[in-house]
Each structure stands twice: as structure tokens, then as C-alpha cells.
Amino acid sequence: MTAATLTIDLDAIAANWRALDAKTACETAAVVKADGYGCGVGRVARRLAHEGARRFFVAVAEEGAALRQELGPGPEINVFSGHMPGDTDMIGDLALTPMINSLDQMLRHLEALPGAPFGIQLDSGMNRLGMEPAEWGALRDLAVQQNLTMVMSHLACADEPDHAMNAQQVRTFRQMTDGLSVPRSLAATGGILLGPDYHFELTRPGVGLYGGRPFAEAQPVAHVQVPVIQIRDVEPDETVGYGNTWVARAPARIATIAAGYADGIIRGMGAQAYVWVGDTPCKVVGRISMDLIGVDVTGVTPDPEAVELLGHHNGVDTLADAAGTIGYEILTSLGARYRRRYHST
Ligand SMILES: *Cc1c(COP(=O)(O)O)cnc(C)c1O
Fold this sequence. Notes:
EC number: 5.1.1.1
CATH architecture of the largest domain: Alpha-Beta Barrel
Radius of gyration: 23 Å
Shape: elongated
Protein name: Alanine racemase
Keywords: Isomerase
Largest sheet: 8 strands, mixed
Bound molecules: pyridoxal-5'-phosphate
Number of strands: 19
Order of helices and strands: EHEEHHEHEHEHEHEHEHEEEEEEEEEHHE
């Protein structure tokens, strides 16, 4: 058995959802786009539905269609990209709720599926998705007479609590939505942590569920154990890996482990990253290959049979920092080669 093992802790996801839910007095949805941030949308969403989540969010209708098969009828499945050309059958047949982003999408939806539910996504300053104030002003009266389920917007700087953009977006969102009688949603993980002004009637956490920053209290969710294939002794001045980028300064013992950048272990993190044997950190040495990584296990006894690449010692953000990226990218890059296990008591 050589493939590395990726264990997703469903109990930890459930605990993270409950902990985020406990921070607000409103409803808590769950964002499960990109295959549940790489953790497996079916298992994740079914567990969260069991915990009490009633609304889910995905990025595109195809993800919503797959999620509906997993969840069955009942839970609301909301699609951030709205109602795109070609999506009508999926939205209608599988009861998806598009977050309408523009006048075009609104007309398409009302024409193709009269009476079908929809939400509205508003742009409160991020300039990514959603209607701008003027467009919304022209459509608002029409929208509220239809089957409108929620209005939402998204914060650009919620992971920086002191950023002036946060308060500015809340003000804009309020100006655009005060007086409406439908649920409002502004906060993702970062917005939940900004406090009650940001909660409205519904929050939409994603990364915090999966153990990532900015939810510092999160329990780790993704655990990766990698088998050691071979261990060798190297003498001073010997090199390890492609390009001879690492040179032994002293006698060292080098383990070659069975994972690489094809498994989402970003090549650029090489020089900064550690793996763990029990409680001992072991430095990654040399370039990360597609399927193999060199690790300095000098002094580790007995010879390790496997190392921890992600888990309690190495969180997704620790690896992200080593790679100069964010935990979201580490999670969604975890490849298809792992032996996947789900932990649930
Ligand atoms: C991805 C996303 C979320 C979830 O964000 P996290 O930072 O992962 O909690 C919420 N809302 C929108 C619009 C998103 O794109």
C-alpha cells in the first residue's frame, strides 16, 4: 500500500459548523463548492445536513446537480453563479436556487422558470459578482413580487478585521436591502468573526468548516499520512533531488516519501516545509518531485514507516504559509491519488 492516505474528519467538520453556528443568533448555511473544498461534497454535505444545516451553497449549477443527488429533496441548494445559459434544466429539474447576478440572469430565470425560487446577489464593493446599486434599484420592485428567497453580498476583506472596507460594505449592503422582508446574508467565515453587525439572518461559512484560517479555533479536518518508500544515508557534499538544490553539510539520513506535487503538495513550498514523525519535525530537503519528496530523518529512531504531512502538527495554513498561498488552495489542490478515508464516530 503505497498511496498516501487522506483522512477527512467528519466529526471535526460537524464540530466546526456547530462552533461557527454558536457565534451567531441567526441561521448558518454551509458552503460546499469545489467538492466541499476538496474534502468530498457528498460526505460533507450529508453530515452537515444531519447536524442541522438546511441551506447549502455551491459555485456552479453542475455542482448543485451533483449535490442534489447526494442530499435528496429538502435542503436548499444555492448557486453563486446564478442562472447561466444552459442551466435551466438543472435548476428546474433539481430544484436549485440561483443567486441572480444581473438583469440578464433575472429575465432568463423569470422567463424560463416562472415562479421558481431565486436569490439576488448584490455587489457591495468587491466588484466580482452581483448587481450594482443602480441595476438593483431598477429591478428591486419586480424581484420582491416574485419567489425571492434571500439577498446576499460578499465581503472582500473579512479576514482583516480592521480593514475599513468591512464597515463600508456593511453600509452599502444595508442601503441596498433595508426594508426588504427576505433573509439577508453577508458573512462567510471571516464575516462571522467580525461580529453581529455582519450576521443578518443567514451566514455562509466555508473554509472555517474545513479547519482553515481565519477561524483560528477550528479543529483540523484534513489529515495526510505518507508512506516512506526508502531511507538512505548521505555523506557531506552529497545532494538530494532534482537540480542538486540541497547539499548535505553533515552525514544525514534521508527518507523518500510517496507524495509530490501531483498530490497538491505545492512544489514551491519545498525549502520551508516540514513533515512530522510523531512529535518530531523533519525538514523537507531538495525539490519536491511529482510523486516523491525527500525528508531529513536524521536522528529519528526507529526508521519511520510513514510521516504526517497534514494533521494536528501541520495544519493547512502551516503548509500554505510554506508555499506562500492560503489554506483554501492547499485544500482544493489535494489530488485524486490519495486513499481517502472518512472519520466519523
Ligand atoms: C466561497 C464563498 C463563501 C465561503 O467563504 P469562506 O471564506 O470559505 O468562508 C461565501 N460566499 C461566497 C460568495 C463565496 O464565494
